[in-house]
Amino acid sequence: MRMMMRIQIPVERGNETLKDGSLPRVMREALDTLKPEAAYFTTIEGQRTALIVFDMKEASLMPKIAEPFFMKLDARVDLAPVMNAQDLESGLKQVAELARAV
After folding, report:
1. Domain 2-101 falls in which CATH fold?
2. How far is the first Cα of the chain from the last one, in angstroms, to the nearest whole number?
């Protein structure tokens, strides 16, 4: 299933991990493991934030994916299923069919 993960790193912890070199290492390891469809880096609510879209094969992978960010960066991690435009079009067609049947 296509998932979007939002990783928010507290400023102080982010500063520490930049200084000790672990922040780029943690991100590189995650990107190498996840092989994302897309990865964007920004700030949200004043914190370093990564938005990573990837395919999650099964829900039991959530701890393996999220724990490195919790443990190494003290990060807030949110995971949510997401659709691209083609998925949305397909889903809306199904809704339209259901609406006609009612």
Report:
1. Alpha-Beta Plaits (3.30.70)
2. 29
Name which of 41, 42, 19, 46 is nearest 30 in CA terms. 41
pLDDT category at 101 given cuts 50, 70, 90 is confident
- Give me the mean pLDDT over the 25-52 stretch: 98
Residue at 13: amino acid letter: R
Rounded Cα distance, 2 and 81, in Å: 6
Q: What is the pLDDT of residue 28?
A: 97
Q: Is 51 exposed, middle or buried (0-12, 13-18, 19+ CB in 10 A)?
A: middle
> How many residues are present in the chain?
102
